[in-house]
Design a protein that fits this description.
By secondary structure, the chain is an all-beta fold. It has no helices and eleven strands.
Length: 145
């Protein structure tokens, strides 16, 4: 799970992908190619950008589940920090300053550096880190040993 830690943000409204379930605060990106272009999609391990966090749970029993209705997305300012759950890798001070990948819509992978969508800025516990959603154009990958 991802949750806001500190810093500014604002809401923007985007069409969701029809017939797709979302949990509150899932990381989302915007589809840019093929069917669904311009709609939200859950972040995956290969997503090159995170646009923000969806601010409404969407379930199959919702009246608008099968439509591309507008949903609110929390869009962070450049210095906004979030608390991220870690599914792969061990949080350690050596990870601070590294750009890492998402694992899925709710977690990050501290051992993946392919697209660098989260900048690690602090350690909370053995399963959580503080980080910033990378606002960038192109890939920014931190140096690793």
């Amino acid at each position: 799970m991802v949750k806001h830690f500190r810093g500014g943000s604002h809401l923007e409204w985007f069409p969701k992908t029809a017939s797709t379930a979302y949990a509150l605060n899932d990381m989302v990106t915007i589809l840019s190619t093929a069917a669904g272009a311009g709609t939200l999609a859950k972040v995956t391990s290969s997503s090159t950008a995170i646009y923000g966090l969806i601010q409404r749970a969407v379930v199959s029993t919702d009246a608008d589940y099968a439509s591309a209705s507008l949903v609110p997305v929390l869009v962070p300012d450049v210095d906004t920090e979030f608390e991220f759950d870690v599914t792969t890798g061990t949080p350690a001070t050596t990870k601070i300053g590294e750009y890492v990948d998402a694992d899925d819509e709710a977690n990050i992978d501290l051992n993946a550096y392919t697209v660098g969508v989260v900048l690690v800025t602090g350690i909370v516990s053995s399963t959580k880190v503080i980080g910033k959603i990378a606002k960038k154009s192109g890939v920014a990958v931190g140096v690793t040993a």
